[in-house]
User: Fold this.
Amino acid sequence: MIRQKSFDAPPFSRREVFRYAGCKTETEEVSSLVDKCCEETEGRLSYRVCYDIYDLRRDGDFLSFANINTDSNTLKTAFKGCHAVLVFGATVGAEMDRLILKYSRLEPSKALIMQALGAERIESLCDAFCRETAEKLVRQGKTLMPRVSPGYGDIPLTMQKELFALLDCPRKIGLTLSDQLIMSPSKSVTALAGIKYDG
Assistant:
């Protein structure tokens, strides 16, 4: 059964915002822009995740879970020694897209920082969700491995379609996928993480 969870705003990493914005040094001007963007987005983003855990099977060169079959070498490495896989979709909602669009017309430099902040926010949400899930699994004698996403390594981007259908992302968290495989809201992620027994 697909589960849903909403999070409070996860811990914020200023350093990551600067990294996503491509800023090597923290100037006063950019720092002020980051502060303004943080203030403007406070309380306006929604941190939502839908997820489930599926048994992982191996058949020759193929891995399979939830009727999804893949021969991706990246996933074979990520799932080495694993018996199950966590599949999830996450989003910070459409408000960030609206702010980016607004400032792309009015103040491009602020739009750049909003883009970077959006990237930091969705990654922080994924980190918070995976950290919470890992803590639960540890109590069951299991370990959650690092997450990977479609488009990473040789994982086909087209796997997005299968993950969206599997998780029912549009209905569960309002996350949609276009025919061109573009997610909306844009500050969203689908990901997979292997689960293995300890010892």
Summary: The mean pLDDT is 96. The longest helix spans residues 108-138. The helical segments are 14-21, 28-41, 73-78, 95-106, 108-138, 159-167, 169-173. The first strand starts at residue 3 and ends at 7.
